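ok, trying the design again with the full structure, not the truncated one.
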């Protein structure tokens, strides 16, 4: 995630490790270090992490782009230690020694993730607390039922677009589209803005030749939104953020809206695609769902343990000389958070086949002061959207051999490129069920505003209850069937 900023560190095209980079480079063995950008890390990340764990323990020396040294935190407890102690490991990238020594190339793929930006993600202390409180308290004003109704409508509209074909790609036609269809409405944007922002955001994250123009489009769209809401506020996240007692400037509001758009789309898309892939390729996983021994929310938590949408989270920087898991960390060293490796740490999960149902102590949403503030909204988008999809297409099946599925990987995450499926279009499954055709108007900003009757029950509302709006009732969702099996249902 990056924006044009005069606050970014100066850079050069030099690629060698600076004289005062981390200890493992100073020791003169940099050439023998594992490269986080190398083919082993890209093609077999779990194996790569376990090899590093076996060789170095819970914290391993690695090289990132330009052969710049860093520390990769592999241990679960060590990740939490870094996340929870900003006094030792801060989020301000400007103290990175390699930035100070001008050793990071201006066109380095590290720059979008590591160049300092004026958002809470790169801040600690009082300023972080001011911005973070504005975000969390504004998000808390949403009505959970309204969010799920919004997800249901958007999911049904996407399904309507391909249901007559009997086949679809659930990555490009569903998982990549749904999050921002919903998020744009949460921000107070017109529903028709969703598709354009989806394309711009995906292009920006892929780093294509048109990524700069896509970023300009995103920023200009958000600038127009801020100006509109300044003149005419409404019951939406943008207006609430602007009205918060933290008194954010328009620029601060814009930058945090951009952060929300990018983060929400990236993580939610990956979680949706990964969960659907498991449903379609793992008979035991699907049997646990259909048999009622695992609910869809349980399935999501299992995926967040086994395949977190962000594999490696950038980054923290040591504020002074310290020690972590026996490694000597020097002031200005960079530490990368191995979220996937931490979730698989044998110290806390000696047997990875043991289900983690109901256990939310994974690292998928980070932790400490910077833990993802929108994680519950992300969960609502994924489990509601998947429930709607599986209810409308109960015979959904993979259209290609599992071995044909492909991923594109980079140092932060890996993405499923396509998930081709087939299904029948006969009977009620083929009905168009979006609000525009069913007559159920579940859209609009007022559907999202916190209401006096939302309370605890609203936050616990299940996808089944949401997906009953504007969808065929011929088949109960898995979660709905489970509720009927419970005593008294």
């Amino acid at each position: 995630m990056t924006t044009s900023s005069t606050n970014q560190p100066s850079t050069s095209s030099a690629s060698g490790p600076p004289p005062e980079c981390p200890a493992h480079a100073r020791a003169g063995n940099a050439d023998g270090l594992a490269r986080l950008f190398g083919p082993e890390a890209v093609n077999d990340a779990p194996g790569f992490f376990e090899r590093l764990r076996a060789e170095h323990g819970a914290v391993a020396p690695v090289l990132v782009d330009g052969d710049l040294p860093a520390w990769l935190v592999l241990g679960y407890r060590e990740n939490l230690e870094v996340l929870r102690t900003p006094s030792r490991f801060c989020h301000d990238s400007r103290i990175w020694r390699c930035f100070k020594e001008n050793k990071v190339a201006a066109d380095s793929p590290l720059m979008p993730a590591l160049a300092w930006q004026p958002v809470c993600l790169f801040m600690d202390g009082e300023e972080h607390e001011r911005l973070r409180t504005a975000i969390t308290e504004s998000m808390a004003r949403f009505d959970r039922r309204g969010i799920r109704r919004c997800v249901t409508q958007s999911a049904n509209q996407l399904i309507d677009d391909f249901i007559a074909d009997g086949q679809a790609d659930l990555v490009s036609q569903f998982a990549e589209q749904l999050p921002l269809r919903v998020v744009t409405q949460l921000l107070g944007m017109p529903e028709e803005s969703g598709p354009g922002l989806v394309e711009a955001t995906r292009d920006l994250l892929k780093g294509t030749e048109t990524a700069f123009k896509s970023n300009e489009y995103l920023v200009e769209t958000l600038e127009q939104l801020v100006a509109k809401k300044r003149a005419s506020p409404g019951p939406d996240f943008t207006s609430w953020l602007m009205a918060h007692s933290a008194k954010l400037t328009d620029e601060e509001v814009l930058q945090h809206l951009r952060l929300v758009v990018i983060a929400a789309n990236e993580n939610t898309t990956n979680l949706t695609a990964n969960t659907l892939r498991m449903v379609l390729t793992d008979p035991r996983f699907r049997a646990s769902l259909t048999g009622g021994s695992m609910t869809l929310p349980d399935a999501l938590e299992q995926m967040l343990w086994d395949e977190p949408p962000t594999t490696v989270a950038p980054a923290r920087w040591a504020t002074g000389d310290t020690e972590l898991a026996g490694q000597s960390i020097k002031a200005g060293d960079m530490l990368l958070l191995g979220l996937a490796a931490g979730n698989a740490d044998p110290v806390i999960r000696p047997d990875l086949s043991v289900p983690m149902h109901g256990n939310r102590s994974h690292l998928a949403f980070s932790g400490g002061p910077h833990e993802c503030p929108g994680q519950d909204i992300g969960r609502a988008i994924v489990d509601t959207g998947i429930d709607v999809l599986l209810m409308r297409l109960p015979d959904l099946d993979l259209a290609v051999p599992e071995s044909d599925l492909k991923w594109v990987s980079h140092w932060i995450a890996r993405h499923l490129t396509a998930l081709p499926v087939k299904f029948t279009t006969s009977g009620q499954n083929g009905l168009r069920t979006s609000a525009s055709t069913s007559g159920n108007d579940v859209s609009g900003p007022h559907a999202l505003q916190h209401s006096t009757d939302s309370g605890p029950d609203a936050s616990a509302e299940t996808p089944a209850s949401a997906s009953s709006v504007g969808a065929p009732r011929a088949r109960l969702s898995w979660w709905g069937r489970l509720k009927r099996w419970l005593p008294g249902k």
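Keeping the full-length input from now on. The two ends are 47 Å apart (CA to CA).
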